[in-house]
Write a structure and sequence with these properties.
The chain is of the alpha+beta class. It has helices spanning about 20-25, 50-65, 70-85; strands at about 35-40, 45-50. Strands 1-2 form a two-stranded antiparallel sheet. Strand 1 (about 35-40) and strand 2 (about 45-50) form a beta hairpin. The protein starts with 20 loop residues before the first helix and ends with a helix. The relative contact order is 0.08.
Length: about 80
């Protein structure tokens, strides 16, 4: 079962926020780590970039048949278009 962690952050000068150590540890954040922030209505969500990429790949897999390479299909489509010009 996933444990929820809720904390309050304060916005400092220049719009900076300090992310507590426990949160950084859970997200696998180190100094210089890239984060992805999603803002939806009045809510902001942070996740580490590696996790964001993993989730994006999982979502794509839901719609793409096993064994299909989207990059190969795109290249084939581009070649067809180039042949028509």
């Amino acid at each position: 079962m996933k444990q929820e962690l809720r904390t309050t952050l304060r916005v400092a000068g220049g719009g900076r926020i300090v992310i507590p150590a426990e949160v950084r540890e859970r997200l696998g954040m180190e100094v210089g780590a890239d984060l992805v922030m999603t803002v939806e209505d009045d809510r902001a969500t942070l996740m580490n970039a590696k996790a964001a990429r993993r989730r994006a790949r999982q979502r794509v897999r839901e719609y793409v048949a096993p064994g299909v390479s989207l990059s190969e299909e795109l290249l084939a489509d581009r070649k067809k278009e180039a042949g028509r010009e």
